[in-house]
Amino acid sequence: MTDLAVIACLAFDHRASAEELQRFKACIVQCPQVVRTMEVCGPFDLIVEGRCADMVEFNAGLDRLRTTLARLVSRIETSFVANVIERSSPRDETQALWIPCRGGRRRVPLARIDRIVAEGDYMRVHVGDWSGLLHQTLGHLAGQMLGAGFVQLHRSCLVRIAFIERLVHDGRRWTARLADGTAIPVAKSHTHDVLRIMGGESSNGGAGSAMAAPIGETPAAITENDLTLLQ
Predict the structure, then answer these.
(1) Contact, 174 vs 187, CB < 8 A?
(2) For residues 68 and 49, what is the distance between their CA atoms, to the nearest angstrom?
(3) How far apart are CA 159 and CA 166, in angstroms?
(4) What contacts 204, CB < 8 A, 6 or more positions away?
(5) Which domain holds residue 125?
(6) 219 within a domain of the structure (yes/no)
(7) What are the phi and psi torsion angles at 65 (to 5°)?
(8) Residues 135 and 71 in one domain
(9) Which of 49, 84, 162, 219 could bridge 35 with an S-S bond, Cβ 3.0-4.6 Å?
(10) Would you place residue 227 in the very low, low, confident or very high pLDDT band (cuts 50, 70, 90)?
(11) Least confident of 52-66, 155-169, 173-187, 215-229
């Protein structure tokens, strides 16, 4: 039975070759105990969510990876999920907006909307390659959509969480890169909510670190056997 959920945040050693890191990440993704991985920018480079039966299995898998981690990773921090708190998010097709279009109004389920951007007194609703203008305030739409899989990036923009591909930090501010190639800055007032919803928060400076991997002297070749994560 698998009942231990683990979140591992990894910062890669700048001396490791791009080819080795790519092979490492590819093998991590294929591990059966790995639920998902996220490439991020900021204090860490990769966040891995995994599951195993218990601490014995986790520690055994970690011991097998320790040499490889020492060569490629400068810092790793782990957390064990105690409880998952999720917003109540209606997923049924009854949640929709009626958007004016030629000849009438078009019914668009919230799950199909990519983003909404304020344009004066109107909101431009983007649905794939199509967009329409809706005479509403962003505050009114936010009250309906923030509990249904959307996040507010700044005072003029709502985005469907699943439409965000990456969160990038340039040392001063966060930027959300969307699936259509658009880059939208995240306002400081909304940064906390964005990172919390996207699962991108991590501790700073190693405080409270569960473990720290040593930095290897010289990156060396890795093998498939080195990368059997948590099994």
Answers:
(1) no
(2) 19
(3) 13
(4) 43
(5) 96-198
(6) yes
(7) -95, -10
(8) no
(9) 49
(10) very low
(11) 215-229
pTM of the entire structure? Answer: 0.46
Q: Considering only 61-65, 89-93, 162-166, 170-174, which range has the smallest mean pLDDT?
A: 89-93
Tens digits of residue pLDDT in 81-108: 877 665 554 454 458 888 888 888 888 8
CB 227 within 8 A of CB 73: no
Give the Cα separation of 158 and 176 in Å (integer): 12
* Contact status, residue 194 vs residue 174, Cβ threshold 8 Å: yes
User: What does DSSP say about strands 164-169 and 122-127: parallel, antiparallel, or unpaired?
Assistant: unpaired
* 122 and 46 in a common domain: no
Q: What's the DSSP call for residue 173?
A: -
- Distance, CA of 95 to CA of 135 (rounded, Å): 18
pLDDT band (50, 70, 90) for residue 218: very low
State how far the Cα of 99 lies from the Cα of 124, in Å rounded to an integer.
10
The neighbour count for residue 121, using CB atoms within 10 Å, is 9
Could you tell me if 38 and 188 are in contact, meaning their C-beta atoms sit under 8 angstroms apart? no
* pLDDT for the residue numbered 73: 94
